[in-house]
Amino acid sequence: MSDRPMLKVDRLTKTYRSAGGALTVLKEVSFQISAGATVAIVGPSGSGKTTLLGLCAGLDRPTSGSVAVAGEAIGEMDEDARALVRNAHVGFVFQNFQLIPTLTALENVLVPVELAGDSSREGEARELLARVGLGERYGHYPVQLSGGEQQRVALARAFMNRPKILFCDEPTGNLDGDTAAAMVDLIFGLNRERGTTLVLVTHDLELAKQCQRIIRLRGGAVLSDEQTQVV
Amino acid sequence: MNFILKMAWRDSRASRRRLVLVSLSVVLGIAALVGIGSLADNLQRTVEQQTKALLGSDLSVSARAPFPEAAEKYFATLGGEQAREIGLTSMVGFPTRENRRKLVQVRALEGNFPFYGELVTVPSGAMAQVLAGHSALLEETLLVQFGLQVGDEVSLGQATFTVAGALKKMPGESAAVATLSPRVYISRASLEETGLLKSRIFTTYRVYFKLPPTRDPDALVVTMKEKFQKQRWKYATVEERKRDLGQALKDTYSFISLVGFVALFLGAVGVASAMHVYIRQKLTTVAVLRCLGASARTSFAVYLIQGAGVGLIGAVCGAALGISVQLILPMVLKDFLPFTVEFYVSWAAVGKGAMAGLVICLLFTLLPLLTVRRVSPLLAIRSAQGESQGRDPWRLGLFFVIASAVLGFAIWQTGHWQTGLGFALMMAFGFGTLTGMAALVSWAAKRFVPKKSLAYVWRQGLANLHRPNNRTVLLLLSLGLGTFLMLTLVLTRDSLVEKLSGLGGGSRPNVMFFDIQDDQVARLKTIITGTGATVVGEAPIVTMKLASLKGRTADEIMKDDKSGVPGWTLRREYRSTYRATLTETEKITEGTFIGHVAPGTEVVPLSVETSLAKDLQLKLNDVLVFDVQGVPVKAYVASLREVDWQRMQANFYLVFPEGVLEPAPKTFVAAAHAATPADSSRLQQAVWKEFPSISAIDLSLVLQTVMGILEKVSFVISFMAAFTVLTGIIVLAGAVLTGRFQRIRETVLLRTLGATRKQLRQIQLVEYAVLGVLAAVTGGGLAVAANALLARFVFKMPFTLSPGVLATSIAASVAITILTGLAANRGIVDHPPLEVLRQET
Ligand SMILES: Nc1ncnc2c1ncn2[C@@H]1O[C@H](COP(=O)(O)OP(=O)(O)OP(=O)(O)O)[C@@H](O)[C@H]1O
Ligand SMILES: [Mg+2]
Known about the structure:
The structure holds two protein chains of two kinds.
Chain A lengths: L4 E14 L2 E14 L3 E5 L6 H8 L7 E6 L2 E2 L5 H11 E4 L11 H11 L6 H10 L15 H14 L4 E5 L7 H18 L2 E5 L3 H5 L3 E6 L2 E7 L4
Parallel strand pairs in A: 3-8, 3-9, 6-7, 7-8
Antiparallel strand pairs in A: 1-2, 1-4, 4-5, 9-10
Helix pairs in contact in A: 3-4, 3-5, 4-5, 5-6
Chain B lengths: L1 H10 L4 H34 L9 E5 L5 H9 L3 E14 L5 E11 L9 E3 L3 H6 L3 E5 H7 L6 E4 L2 E11 L5 H6 L2 E5 H7 L1 H4 L4 E7 L6 H11 L6 E4 H54 L4 H38 L13 H27 L19 H22 L2 H32 L7 H8 L8 H32 L7 E6 L4 H10 L3 E16 L2 E2 H6 L7 H5 L1 E6 L7 E6 L11 E7 H6 L7 E6 L2 E13 L10 E3 L10 E7 L3 H14 L4 E4 H54 L4 H38 L8 H22 L8 H7 L2
Parallel strand pairs in B: 3-8, 5-7, 14-19, 16-18
Antiparallel strand pairs in B: 1-9, 1-10, 2-3, 2-6, 2-9, 4-7, 5-8, 6-7, 11-20, 11-21, 12-13, 12-14, 12-17, 12-20, 15-18, 16-19, 17-18
C-alpha cells in the first residue's frame, strides 16, 4: 500500500440554499484514505453521508474545501473534467442500483468501458457477471431482474473500469441477510484481488466492522474516525 | 462516437414505436411542403415547355375599335402569318331547347389560330367547319348544360348557326375563365350576318401574329407602342404572358405553402412536446451515464441523435407522402390551371421541402434536449434533485433562432418581407393566444377548483389539467388550431354564400338588360311591365376616354414616371352615364351633385367616384377634358361620390348632368325585378323575341356560377387546411399517448388503492371533455374574430355569424377530443398493476 492518499478530503463544507434559508449539510469535514484501504462511513439518517459520498465521487461541487481523488483535485474541475476522472478512476454503487432501464445487464456493465471508447471487453464483462452469479442472465433487462440481482449487476458495472476507488452507498440496504452477505463477500473479494480502495456508507454496524476504519458522522461533522481491528 | 451511436440505438429500444409515432406529427407538414414545392417546379417547367402554347401566337394586339388603315398597312409588312378575331358578348339562343338563352363571349375568328399549342375540339375538325361559315363551336359546358348535339341549331343575333362541335381546350386559357361566360366561336364572315356588330359598344378587335423567326415580339411591341402612340392598344407576348403566369403561380404557391407550413409548425410543436416528456423520463439515465463518466456533450449527443432520427424519419416519410400529394394536387387545381401538367418529381423541391421540415423539427426538438446538457450526476443518488436551476442562455438563443427560422421561411416563401412578417406575427398571435389560454386554464384549475365540495372524479380530472407534465398546452394548441382553421373556412364560405344569395333578394333587380339602343328603350319598358315585372332602373351609357387632366394631356401624364397616376385610369374607356339624381347606392362626400345644366354649357359639372378621384389625384373644381367618340367635352369636378359597388347594379365612375351627353352615341342598360324564376324566364323570352340583339343577364344564374367557383376555391383551400387539421389530430393522439405513459403509473396506483374502472374512465372523460370544450371555444373564438376581420377588411360586408355552424363545429371538436382521448387511453385500466409498478423503479 502506497503512502500517497487515494482520497483526500480537506475541510469540506456543503451548504444547500433553498427558499427556507441555507442548510449546512457538511461542516469542515477532513480525512484521508490511503490506497487499498477499506473505510465505512456511518451515521444517523440525514447526517450527510450520501452528500459526502457524492462529493468524494465528484458528483457535485463543494461549497468550500477540497477533494482529491487519486491525486487529482476534483473540486476545482468543471463537470466534464470530473466525468473523465470518474470514468478513469471511480466506481459507484448506488443505494437504488440505478441501472439504465433500456439496456440489458451486459450492456449496462459495458457502459463505462464503451464510454471510454473501448468496445473489446465483452468477454470480461461476461466474466464479471458470472462472478456475481448472473452468468445466465446477461441478456435480461433490469425489470426482469430482482432487486438483489440488479444490485449485483450494478456492482459488476462499478468494477468494469477497474476503478482505483469504489464508493458504495448502502450496498446492502435493500437486501435480505443472505443476499447481503454475498454482496459483501463480492465487494471485499474484489478489493483483495485488485487492491481497490473501498468507501462504504452503511447503517449495518456488522458490515462497518469488517472495514479497516470507521468514520462516524453526526450533523454533518466527523464525530469519530477510528481504526478497527481488521487488518 | 461509436459509443454515442450504440447508446442512442440501444436506449431507444423500448420506445422506438413511440418515437416513430412522434415523427408522424411532422410528416403531413413536410408532405405538404414537398408536394407543393415539387408541383410548383413542375408547373414552372411546363410553362417553359409550353411557352408558345400559352398564347397560341407570338404576339397579339387588341383594340377597342377596328384597326385604322395605317395600322393595317403596317401589319401587312410584318410578314409571317396573321389571324383576326372580333370579340363581343351576346346572348346565344337554343331554338331546339325551348328557346332558352345564355350570355356568352362570341369570338368571330378568321385565320389559322392558334398557331401554337393544341386546340382540342370534339369532333376534332370542328374549327375548320366553323371557319367555313354558318357553324359555331360551343364551349363544352354549354352543350352539356343545354343537352345539345352536333348538328343542332343555335341563334346569335339575327343569324342561325349549326353546332359544329364542343370546345374543350384553347391554348393559354383555363377552364375557370370560361365558367363565367362560355365561349362561342364563329367565323368572322358570319358575324356580319348576326347584325350584332352594329349594336355593340364593347367590342374587342384582335390580331394574332405568327412572326418570322427573325422578329423579336417584345422588340416589336416597343416599336409599335412608339409608332401607334395615340392608339391605346393592348399587347400580349409570350414572354409577358410567361411572366404574368409565373407570378400568378408563385402567388398561389406561396399561399398554399404557408398553409402547409402551419401544419409543419404545429407538428414540430407536437414533436418538441413529446420529446420533452420523453427526455424527462430519461433524466435518471442521463445522470447515471454522467456518474459513469460520460461528458455533458456525450450524453447530449446520445439524445440529439435520437431526436435527429425522429426528424429524419418524419422528413423521409413526409417526402414520400409529398410525392403522392403532388400527384393529387393537379386534380385539385385542375380548373385553375391553363394547361395540363405532366407529372415529374422535382428532386430539388423534394430535398428543399424535406430539409426545411427537418430543420424546423430539429430546432424544436433541441428545446427539450437542452436540459440533457445540464443534468447533474447527483440526480442518480437523489431523484428529488430535479433539473438544474437557473436560466439557460442557450434556450433563449434557441427561441430566437426558431423565431428567425419561421420568419425567414415565411419571407422566403412569400418573397415579400412584409407579407412574411405579417404571417409570422399572425402565427405568433394564434399560437400565443392558445398557449396563453392553456396557461390560464391550468392556473384556474389549480386556483379555483374547490377541494371538498366536488366529486372525486371531477377533482382528479380537473387536477390533471395543472399537474406536472400536463398536456394542457399541447392539446389546446392542436385542437384549437384545427378548430380555428376549419371553422374560419366554413364561416367565410358561409358568409360569402349568404352575401351572394342576398344579392337577388327583395325588390333588388335580378335581370339586367344591356346593349339597348335609343329607340328600343320605351318599347323594352313596356315589355317588362307587360310580363308583370318591374323596371328598377335604366341608365344611358356613353363611352369616352380621358383626353387631358388638369391641363396636361393623358399621353403626357402617361410618359411621366413620377406622376403617380396609374396607367389604367388614363388608358381605359370610361363608360359614363348622365342623370339628374343620385341612386340609393351613392353618397356625396364632397361638393354638391349637380343634376342638370343648360345645353351648351362650356364646362360641365361632373361627379367623380372617390377611389378614381384618388387615383387621378383630383380635387373639387379640377378640370378634365374627355374625348367622347371624337368630340371633346370639358368638365370640372363638382362633387366626389362614394359608390357601394357590392350592389349588383349599373354603377358608374363618372356621372354627368343631364343636358350634355344626350346627342352622343349611346346605349342603355336597364334593370328589372321579376318575382319568380318563371317570371324572369318569361320576361327574357319576351325581350328576346322582339329584340334578339339585347343581351340579358339573369343574376340568379350568375350567382350559381359564382357559387360554383367559390365551391372550387374553397375545396382547394380545405384540401390544404386538411393537412393542418390532420396534423392537429396526430399531435393530439401523440399528446394523449405520451400522457398515457405518464399516467399509467398513477392509474395503477389508484387501482391498487381500489379505484374502479368506471371511476378511472370518468376521470379521463372529465379531463378530455374540459380540454375539448376549452379548445373548441378558444379556436371558435379566434375563428369568429378572424372572420369578423375578413368580413370588414377583405370582403367589406357586415359580419354575420351562423350559430348553428359554430355550435356544430364546436361540438364536433369536443367529440373528436374525447374519442381520441379515450381511444388512446384504451387498455390503460386493464394493465396488471405489478408489471407497471416494477417498470417504474
Ligand atoms: N438539494 C438539497 N437541498 C436541501 N437540502 C438537502 C439537499 N440534499 C440533501 N439535503 C439535506 O442534507 C441532509 C443530508 O442528506 P444526506 O442525503 O446526505 O443524508 P444521509 O446521511 O445520506 O441520510 P440517509 O441515511 O437517510 O440516506 C439532509 O437533511 C437532507 O435533507
Ligand atoms: Mg443517504
